[in-house]
Every structure is written in C-alpha cells, then in structure tokens.
Amino acid sequence: ELAAQVARELRKLGRRMAGLQVRTVSGGEPVRAQAMALKRGVHIVVGTPGRILDHLGRGHLELGGVSALVLDEADRMLEMGCQADIEAIWAEVPSDRQTMLFSATFPQSIEKMSSAHQREAVRVTVKQEQTDTPSIEQVMLHAEPAKKMNALLWALDHYAYESAIIFCNQKATVAEIERELHLRGASVDC
Questions:
Q1: Nearest Cα residue to 24 out of 9, 13, 14
Q2: How far apart are CA 152 and CA 103, in angstroms?
C-alpha cells in the first residue's frame, strides 16, 4: 500500500513531465502485468524488495541505469527481515548512484546500512514543533476475530467523535468495514 501511495505522489509531482512512466511492483497484482509494463520501459520503479528481486531474477528488470535509490521506511524493512533482499538489490545498481534512506527511527542497523552504502552521507533530522498535545484517551478492546466488527461498532457508538480514522492490515477488511458503516448511514470512504 505504501508503494502505491508513493507512486501516486510521484505521478502528481511529475504530471508536467510529458511521458513520465512510474510503475509499482509489489504483491497483489499479477507478475505478468508488471513485467509487460517494465518491458515497455519506465522511469521510476516503486516496489517492495521481494517483488523487485523476483523481477530481477526473471530478467524483467535491469538496474544498470539507476541513478537514485530510495529506501522509505528503511527501519521497518529491516525489522521485517528484508536486509538480505535490500543487499541483493544494492548489488545490482551502479555504485555511483545517489542513495537516500528515510526512517522514522535511527537504530544501529540503519547507521550500519548508511555507512556501508552511502558516501559523504548527510543526516537530516526533522523535529516536530512543540505544541500543546490534546488529551487523548486510549482504549484497547480484546475481541475474537468473529466479533471484531461488533467491537468496532460498539466503540464508534460509545465514544463521541467528530471524525475517525480506522486502520486495517488488509484491503478486504477495509472494504468490509466501509460497507458495514455505509449500511449504518455513516459518511465513510476507504
């Protein structure tokens, strides 16, 4: 989902660049459709390490012309065990490329990766402005999988809110919740 979001933003940024081709390569879409798009040629590939390696292994993707390599959510990828995949991709790109690592945290693993793959790296830290934080109440509900929808509906009915954001780990769950809330008269979108 992050890859699709990044690709959308890149297309928006490059909308005035005639012919700019941005392609997402990640799970959830057949490899064949991605391979055909890659064969036609793209300027920017946004993808997950596993699917990028899959395309490299099948000969659908050639990284010899890459001038910039960006790892967004680098800390999360390392936490998820993607380091070997990332290293394999790095082995396929030219050494004179620009490498950018974006990370919400800066653990030792990111420091090591930066030292190994970046030259003359500049660390940019964005600090959040100190503001008055609203009083936030956190509540955790334990529910069996079959009763999660009822627990969510109870929480939405029980706690007063002006608007709400509901995060899910699967697209199907998002669609199910949107459908249920819509049936109950909520103004909802996914």
A1: 9
A2: 31
